[in-house]
Specification:
The chain is mainly beta. About 5% of the residues lie in helices and about 35% in strands. It contains 6 helices and 32 strands. The relative contact order is 0.16.
Length: about 500
């Protein structure tokens, strides 16, 4: 009965099917070892000249002089974007948050297919630092579509946004929904041309017969206009729903991952991509795991990682073969038998994986914890941080209301010394790797006042509740922080709470 329930829910959407992959894995037979098929990849990939995997990872470890961890940081409210009303429209729910490489721009995508870009106020770069971000550009990135061949609705929801490094005055970003990836150019225009010979001022064409004299066009200043235009559209390459995109460090290629395959694209070529990972079994009844997230290494353009619903992370080297069906390293933590339960496979599914800025470490987020991995050590994580261990006793009810399948993201701070991830009741958690301090903060309208200092929140899981604690039974599971982002060099964080974007910064 349990399997029937989930299969009935899924219809054609494998993305939803596999969010229950942990349940399916309880009955499914293991993959029979057949080699995954797929299109042949490129004969040779552009890469650095480093030889050994261990050696090239060592070179990625470099000291960065950036902000300290969050151990002694007092966070205070800076801004909130969006209405604080309780009446929330589905289309306004934020589905992704991403700072650009210098932190001056912050992009959000929502379920309505819109991308909103906020720009930092130039005056806020002076001391004391302020995180004032104002709307820079808003545009409709994706529209709802319908696949008539498969009778499938394709949502306009923006799943991921990734910035490209800036090469000219314009900004470029990739955005994707379940099926289509788009490259957007965001540029400014503050001048216009006047004095055309064959066109009138309103833009209509003039018959050349009526042109009696020639004028030299002049360029005149105009009010600043920000334009967003699609430069490339990458479509028709994914059978299942796209869950990740990641720009390579060479800034020429990027990967896109769905539930069973990872494709490699060139930013200039839209009509073909190379299938570099294919885990689809010949018989779909033998399916035991799916891809949940994928990301390129920040330094080495031939390396990437991808996580699975079985709690494993694979590091692949594109120099080894065109089809990376054989991983270079497998990161997996043996399960603790004392914590074994019916829900073990579900909660061990990794919802997000992020490589550190220096390329030496990575973090993975499963349902109850965040783990830090050293790329030199595959056997177990070097650090494990419980996010909301008090929910372990609530897994049955969380399964019934489908919250157990929520996909929480995680992120590093600029110097890789602190980690942030979300929880329920609009709580989000921060962990300082140096001091081992951790703190729970809340993004709510009650603190939406300038310079209000965020007070640590504590959850009581049983026994007598203290005055400043909240009972686990009182948590609102409809309010969840799934998407967070940390400024690349400063203590400024962006937290998406349903339809609101909260900005917090260290006290000044």
């Amino acid at each position: 009965m349990l399997i029937k329930r989930h299969v009935h829910k899924n219809s054609f959407n494998l993305g939803t099917t596999i969010r229950h992959a942990g349940v399916i894995g309880l009955w499914a037979s293991p993959v029979n070892g057949k080699k995954a098929g797929g299109k042949p990849g490129p004969p040779a990939m552009r890469h650095t000249g480093l030889g050994k995997l261990g050696g090239l990872i060592n070179t990625a470890v470099h000291a960065t002089k950036r902000t300290p961890g969050n151990g002694d940081v007092q966070w205070c409210f800076a801004q909130v974007k969006g209405t604080l009303d309780d009446d929330v429209t589905e289309a306004d729910i934020i589905s992704c948050v991403e700072f650009n490489h210098d932190g001056d721009l912050l992009a959000t995508g929502d379920k309505g297919g819109r991308v909103v870009i906020f720009q930092r106020d130039p005056g806020s770069k002076t001391f004391p630092r302020r995180g004032e971000y104002n709307v820079y550009s808003t545009f409709q990135s994706h529209e709802p579509e319908f696949d008539y061949l498969k009778s499938l609705e394709i949502e306009e929801k923006i799943n991921k946004i990734r910035w490209l490094k800036r090469r000219n005055p314009a900004h470029f970003l990739l955005s994707t929904n379940d099926k289509t990836i788009k490259l957007w150019k965001v540029s400014e225009r503050d001048k216009k041309v006047e004095g055309y010979n064959t066109r009138s001022e309103n833009g209509s064409l003039i018959d050349p017969v009526n042109v009696n004299s020639l004028r030299v066009p002049t360029i005149k200043p105009m009010e600043l206009m920000v334009e967003a235009s699609p430069r490339r559209i990458f479509a028709n390459a994914h059978t299942y729903h796209i869950n990740s995109i990641s720009v390579n460090s060479d800034q020429e290629t990027y990967l896109s991952a769905d539930d069973l395959r990872i494709n490699l694209w060139h930013l200039e070529i839209t009509d073909q991509s190379f299938n570099i990972v294919d885990i689809k079994p010949t018989n779909m009844e033998e399916l035991t795991e799916v891809i949940t997230a994928a990301e390129f290494h920040p330094v080495e353009c031939n390396l990437f990682v991808y996580s699975s619903s079985k709690g494993t992370i694979r590091l692949c080297d594109m120099r080894a073969s065109a089809l990376c069906d054989r991983h270079a390293k497998l990161f997996e933590e043996p399960e603790d038998p004392t914590n074994r339960s019916f829900f073990s496979e579900i909660i061990s599914s990794i919802s997000d994986v992020k490589l550190s800025n220096n390329g030496r470490y990575m973090i993975s987020r499963d349902y109850l914890s965040v783990k830090v991995w050293d790329l030199h050590m595959e056997t177990k994580p070097i650090e494990t941080y419980p996010v909301h261990e008090y929910l372990r006793s609530k897994l049955c009810s969380l399964y019934e209301n489908d919250c157990i399948f929520d996909k929480f993201e995680c992120c590093w701070n600029g110097n890789d010394m602190a980690i942030m991830t979300g929880s329920y009741n609009n709580f989000f958690r921060m962990f300082d790797r140096t001091t081992k301090r951790e703190v729970t903060l809340e993004a709510s309208k009650d603190i939406a006042k300038p310079k209000t200092i965020l007070k640590p929140r504590k959850v009581c899981s049983g026994g007598k509740r203290k005055k400043d604690e909240i009972s686990v039974d009182c948590l609102d599971f409809n309010k969840k922080i799934l998407h967070t982002a940390w400024h690349p060099t400063e203590n400024i964080i962006a937290v998406a709470a349903t339809n609101n974007l909260f900005l917090f910064q260290d006290k000044f």
